[in-house]
Structure formats: structure tokens, C-alpha cells
Amino acid sequence: MIRLSSPISNHDINNLKSGDKVLITGTIYTARDQAHIRLLNEKNLPFPIEGSIIYYVGPTPKKEGFAIGASGPTSSYRMDEMAVPLMEKGLKIMIGKGDRSEEFRHEMMKNNAVYLIATGGAGALLSSRIKSSKLIAYEDLGAEAIYQLEVEDFPCFVAYDVHGHNLFKDRL
Is 103 exposed, middle or buried (0-12, 13-18, 19+ CB in 10 A)? Predict the structure, then answer.
């Protein structure tokens, strides 16, 4: 088990290997399709991108006593092309579910970033690891707005590492 705290360094990234279980503590940001489109057109991003983590999630409305509603990962392949310019600016970790394109994997390795997967279907469990949630951009997008999340021991697995390994294809 590897514990990571944000912001993420190149040293952190280089030590991760496909299949590693990771627990993240600190700040992560939410962003899906529509938020990515807007981020690509921003001169000044609404959060510090260097060393950042983006979680591909569209949380449900929060319930009384919770920081956020169910927060399971969404399919990530839709963000493949849009993630590249963000990695070039310093994005280090993307969290979602499912396999991604070969082109994305090459860009990820080139930019010293990694892709983690969270367990699909476990949105209520994952939301219990989110300690606070704050809307920071694109309120009009509803569930696809960008939120700043403070997480504690948020569980993920390394799907793609910078060494070229792929959890979906390699035998570990």
C-alpha cells in the first residue's frame, strides 16, 4: 500500500507501479467532459494544476451530514485528448474507471503522469473518504462543475504507470 499526499511530485509518480494500491490524502479536483472543454479554453485555471489530481466523477447531491453525495468514478476514455494539455501544464494523476487509448498512455508517460482507477459501483463507499467538497468553477454544469475535494485515504489502484505497464493488459 502506498500513501500519497497532494500535491504530487515527480518522485511520487516514478515510484508508482501498475497494480499498486494507493491511498490519497489531500486535495483532489473533479472534472468531466464539459469541465475539460472549458479548462482547455482558460488562460488562468481555477485551481493550481502543478502536481494536481483530477477525479472523473459527477457526484450525486449531498445528503445531510455528508460532504458530498455518492461519488463513483466515471468512464475515463472520453477525456483522453483533453487530458493531454492539462498534463503538459503539470497534472500528475487522473482517477477514473476503465481502459484508455494507447495514444493517451504514451502522452501520460511523456508527461510523467499516471492513471489510477477507483472501484466503479462503490460511489457511496468512496464518498465516505471525502471530508469536504467546495464548488470552485462552472456552477452551471451541475454535477460536472469543478469541485475541490479534501480526501482522506481515498482508495485507488495504479492502472498505468510511467514505466509502460498497463493493469488492463499486463499479467502481474
Answer: exposed
